[in-house]
Amino acid sequence: MKTNEDKKHLKLLSYFPVLAAIAMIVAFLIxxxxxxxxxxxxxxxxxxxxxxxxxxxxxxxxxxxxxxxxPSEIPIEVEGKKKKGKAKKIAREREYATTxxxxxxxxxxxxxxxxxxxxxxxxxxxQVYLSQVLExxxxxxxxxxxxxxxxxxxxxxxxxxxLVPSDIENLSGIYQDIVCKNRDVQKVFLFTTGDVxxxxxxxxxxxxxxxxxxxxxxxxxxxxxxxx
Amino acid sequence: xxxxxxxxGFMWTWNIHDxxxxxxxxxxxxxxxxxxNYDVRTSDDYLSLLGGTFSEKPDMTHxxxxxxxxxxxxxxxxxxxxxxxxxxxxxxxxxxxDIEKVExxxxxxxxxxxxxxxxxxxxxxxxxxxxxxxxxxxxxSILTLTVQLALPAPLLLIVQSTxxxxxxxxxxxxxTVLLLMILRAYYASKLIRRF
Lengths: 228, 195
Known about the structure:
Strand content of chain A: 15-25%
Distance between the termini of chain B: 34 Å
Strand order of the largest sheet of chain B: 1-5-4-3-2
Distance between the termini of chain A: 51 Å
Strand content of chain B: 5-15%
Oligomer: heterodimer
Radius of gyration of chain B: 26 Å
Largest sheet of chain A: 5 strands, mixed
Structural class of chain B: alpha+beta
Structural class of chain A: alpha/beta
Radius of gyration of chain A: 26 Å
Largest sheet of chain B: 5 strands, antiparallel
Number of helices of chain B: 5
């Protein structure tokens, strides 16, 4: 914990560049008649503007990246409107990301499983079960979603938070236990609405766990085709 | 049904939003339990060990089984919805000592990293001030070294001393930020070396 004394020192130290800036500006003003100084002043102003512009750009990009979980009806509509132009599609997706998605995530988060089921059915999955108990070699496991496609069984766990490495290790252990008794289990998916670190993605890849983000369900090439 | 206690030693992780740090903390917890000779099992192993039924399925990751007791890492359950905590079933009183050890093992470097990260971001205003300071230091040095100023002697002295003052302040600031960043990297390496 930072004490008040520490905070005071910290605040004082953060004034240093500001003081340096003021000192430099004073110095520049005194020798303003010098052309090189004027160029230097201009270059500083330009560089500050550049920094601000880059940061504004990065902020906008970050905002744009905070996309997007489709309620089941949205992707179908988007796919249908393809012929009417890319701009319309982008506008629709943007509207979705700014209005529909936040509303969806806050108000309807309880129906997340149902939304995934609807999307899986749209992507060709049959016999979708929620909270299915499967017998493993050592113990019983309650899996969030179990579904079938072309006689192959797939498992899906849902995490409404960012993923950590132990999520993958846990799911991998569950899969190993289940597959001993259920040979038709083909793949395990880990659905998350949160962020996924690169290290976690790597562990998942090594363990054969397929991480599914909300936007993956929206893609025309289904996650099932991609992984089978 | 076997008794299931909550260990709240990891409450400090609830305020950490940094993705990589949270992953490092999680991996460090696993490594710490492994070092104490605990066997890593699935969350369902722990739940089946307790027996009974749960009204709400706990959002657990994996569990650890050892001679002193059984532990499971949980993020959200009916008892605690706020964030990372540990469920434990102690077979021996030593189980409490073990979990305290794990908490210290993970908490010391992780808390220092989190605190240094906040300090650096407060101090540098998310590195905006660092960039500004570098620009001023470079331009100030170039101007002081290369430009011959046609100014009267007293004015020239003021200008030169102001330049020197500005450059010195910038350098002190940059060195401080650099030292803090090195310290943060040191603790990060300490935390990451554990898994």
